[in-house]
């Protein structure tokens, strides 16, 4: 249901947006700029991989220590950190330069194959890095081992189940050694298979988990341009903002977060669910049913639910897929209720089969809030509790910080779902495009949650990249992504009692990057030539 925003004709049998049809290929000068940008980002990725040897979240018994030359990096923390930061800065700057050549409304812009090749060049070195920005992958290994031993990872943590002397437990951050797994049974079933292959070999286990997340990343790359075309957004721009985004590269590829698998399944499920859906305007007319249409709706809902039994936020996508199906049926309340009932049956069936078939049961539903044990200033509602409690201390009312945090988190727990419900209703009434509503709803639920991590932003940013063509949104997403990408240390550790390392590392990295920018200064893209017809917002 695209409001007629697609151009007539097509490329290789698929429709093109008017932005695609109007834009021309890059000229010789711009192709040279693209080549320099690619190499600039690739050098940054290589530096990040090199710096990870000393600044990454390496396992307790790191094999790097036994390698000639490479063993120098763990001994030079500040130098390794500076190299890693230089890589981070160069990737972010390369991404910003690439954005200049893939901006919506540009008269000449990067093609989809050129964007894909750039993404491969930047990703390939990152596959070889030591895990960075987080140590969650070591929790994955420990929890998978618990499941492999026939124990319940939803009732015991690594310390109790494996013992503190176990090599897998030693790599888990202390704060998570006593906590049960917050992840769905599908992820732990896959992790159990990885454990069966790798045993307690930490490096091999990390490598297999990275392959799993690369599969999720590949699903994101596959789905984004297809969804973008469906919603009238230039697929190159969507791929730039949603897949080449430094936060995606740093936290899904380098950080080995299972968000890659969950978000990938969610996006693929939406694309499959809409595969046979005909296009019509907000008020109809609604064309006759097409063969296999119901089957694809069921397949899409099943794949989305599989994403939810990796990480539960993916379940929100079922609501917005349901809105699009209900509008296709006729757009009345009875159609919405019938669709909601059918999708609920699919969701419950897939959850039951996965939970019972895995042998892990439904214990995962009770551990979804495990991360809330951490009180982080990055979560707005937790920060509000800290602020209110601190104000009470200043006013002489006593220390009630814990109570204030509990109350503020309760408010956030209600506020996030209420906002999501409002966005779902607005999408059904066509006041908001459903895919935009999904991104905003995921952002609301996660931002108002008890704990917020930088990679949580990707739940909102990636769906929005496929459907939101507004220039202001693109600018805000660019600024936020770049700021978070350069602000977070890559070690996965806090810098308690050694914060003095950071200024030296930042300064050293800045010097390297300034020199690199001076070398490529003649190839930095300027303001792009524009076309009149720019962005197109639509929705099935």
Automatic annotation (TrEMBL):
Residues 1-25 are annotated as: Disordered. It comes from the Bacteria. The chain crosses the membrane at residues 40-61, 81-103, 115-134, 202-224, 236-257, 294-324, 336-357, 377-397, 436-459, 471-489, 501-520. It is found in: Membrane. GO terms for cellular component: membrane. It is a multi-pass membrane protein. Keywords: Glycosyltransferase, Membrane, Transferase, Transmembrane, Transmembrane helix. One of its GO terms (molecular function) is glycosyltransferase activity. Belongs to the MptA/B family. This is Alpha-1,6-mannosyltransferase. It comes from Actinophytocola oryzae. The lineage of its organism: Bacteria, Bacillati, Actinomycetota, Actinomycetes, Pseudonocardiales.
């Amino acid at each position: 249901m695209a409001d007629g925003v697609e151009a007539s004709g097509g490329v290789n049998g698929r429709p093109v947006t008017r932005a695609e049809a109007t834009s021309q290929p890059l000229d010789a000068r711009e192709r040279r700029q693209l080549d320099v940008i690619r190499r600039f980002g690739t050098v940054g990725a290589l530096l990040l991989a090199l710096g990870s040897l000393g600044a990454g979240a390496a396992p307790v018994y790191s094999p790097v220590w036994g390698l000639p030359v490479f063993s120098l990096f763990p001994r030079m923390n500040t130098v390794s950190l500076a190299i890693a930061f230089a890589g981070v800065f160069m990737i972010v700057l390369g991404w910003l330069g690439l954005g200049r050549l893939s901006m919506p409304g540009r008269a000449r812009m990067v093609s989809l194959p050129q964007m894909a090749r750039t993404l491969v060049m930047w990703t390939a070195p990152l596959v070889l890095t030591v895990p960075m920005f987080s140590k969650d992958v070591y929790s994955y290994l420990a929890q998978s081992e618990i499941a492999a031993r026939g124990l319940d990872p939803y009732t015991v943590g690594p310390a109790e189940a494996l013992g503190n002397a176990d090599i897998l437990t030693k790599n888990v951050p202390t704060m998570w050694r006593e906590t049960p797994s917050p992840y769905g049974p599908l992820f732990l079933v896959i992790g159990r298979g990885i454990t069966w292959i790798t045993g307690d070999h930490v490096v091999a286990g990390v490598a297999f988990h990275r392959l799993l997340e690369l599969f999720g990343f590949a699903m994101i790359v596959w789905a984004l341009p297809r969804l973008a075309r469906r919603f009238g957004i230039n697929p190159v721009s969507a791929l730039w903002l949603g897949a080449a985004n430094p936060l995606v590269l740093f936290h899904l590829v380098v950080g080995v977060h299972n968000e890659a698998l969950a978000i990938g399944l969610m996006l693929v499920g939406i694309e499959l669910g809409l595969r046979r859906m005909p296009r019509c305007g907000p008020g109809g007319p609604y064309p006759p049913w097409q063969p296999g249409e119901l089957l694809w709706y069921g397949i899409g809902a099943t794949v989305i639910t599989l994403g939810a039994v990796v990480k539960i936020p993916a379940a929100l996508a079922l609501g917005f897929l349901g809105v699009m199906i209900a509008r296709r049926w006729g757009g009345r309340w009875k159609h919405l209720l019938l669709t909601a009932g059918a999708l609920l049956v699919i969701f419950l069936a897939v959850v039951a089969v996965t939970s019972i078939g895995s042998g892990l049961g439904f214990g995962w539903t009770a551990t979804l809030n495990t991360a809330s044990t951490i009180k982080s200033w990055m979560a707005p509602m937790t920060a509000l509790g800290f602020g209110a409690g601190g104000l009470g201390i200043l006013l002489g009312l006593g220390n009630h910080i814990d109570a204030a945090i509990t109350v503020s988190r309760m408010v956030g727990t209600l506020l996030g779902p209420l906002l999501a419900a409002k966005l779902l209703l607005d999408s059904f009434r066509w006041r908001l495009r459903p895919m935009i509503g999904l991104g905003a709803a995921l952002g609301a639920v996660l931002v108002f949650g008890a704990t917020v991590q930088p990679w949580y932003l990707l739940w909102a940013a990636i769906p929005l990249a496929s459907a939101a063509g507004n220039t202001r949104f693109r600018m805000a997403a660019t600024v936020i992504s770049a700021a978070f990408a350069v602000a977070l240390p890559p070690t996965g550790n806090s810098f308690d009692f050694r914060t003095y390392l950071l200024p030296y590392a930042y300064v050293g990295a800045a010097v390297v990057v300034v020199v690199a920018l001076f070398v490529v200064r003649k190839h930095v893209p300027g303001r792009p030539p524009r076309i009149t017809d720019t962005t197109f917002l639509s929705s099935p």
